[in-house]
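Page 37, continued from 36.
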C-alpha cells in the first residue's frame, strides 16, 4: 500500500472509533432514587395544554426543593391527597427525549412509607 492509502485507512478508522465513543454518550441514564412526595399539592404550568394545573409536590433525595409535577408523573404510583410518601423509584434520564414530553421518566419500584397528614 502507498502512503496515501495507509493515511486514508487510518483516518477512517480513527473517525469510526470517535463516532462509536460519542454514541455511548447518547444512552439513557438509569438509577434508583428515593423520592419524597408532599401531602400538599401545588400548581404547575402544563406546557402542551398551556394551562395552570394542580399536581403533586416531589423532591428527589439529595435535592433541596420540592417541584410540582403532574399526578401521573411516576408510573405505577397513585397519589392520595393528604398523604406523605417515601418512594423508591427508577429514574431514567432519556438521552433522546421526545419533543412533546420531559427528559426524565419515573417508575415506582416500591412504596417505602406512607403517612396521613391531618393538617393539610
Amino acid at each position: 500500500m502507498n502512503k496515501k492509502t495507509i493515511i486514508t485507512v487510518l483516518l477512517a478508522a480513527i473517525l469510526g472509533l470517535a463516532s462509536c465513543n460519542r454514541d455511548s454518550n447518547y444512552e439513557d441514564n438509569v438509577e434508583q432514587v428515593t423520592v419524597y412526595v408532599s401531602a400538599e399539592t401545588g400548581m404547575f404550568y402544563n406546557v402542551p395544554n398551556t394551562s395552570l394545573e394542580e399536581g403533586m409536590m416531589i423532591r428527589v433525595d439529595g435535592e433541596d426543593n420540592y417541584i410540582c409535577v403532574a399526578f401521573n408523573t411516576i408510573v405505577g404510583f397513585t397519589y392520595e391527597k393528604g398523604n406523605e410518601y417515601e418512594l423508591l423509584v427508577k429514574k431514567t434520564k432519556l438521552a433522546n427525549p421526545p419533543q412533546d414530553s420531559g427528559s426524565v421518566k419515573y417508575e415506582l419500584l416500591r412504596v417505602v412509607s406512607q403517612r396521613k397528614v391531618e393538617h393539610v
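The helical segments are 3-24. Flag for discussion at group meeting. The chain is about 20% helix and 50% strand.
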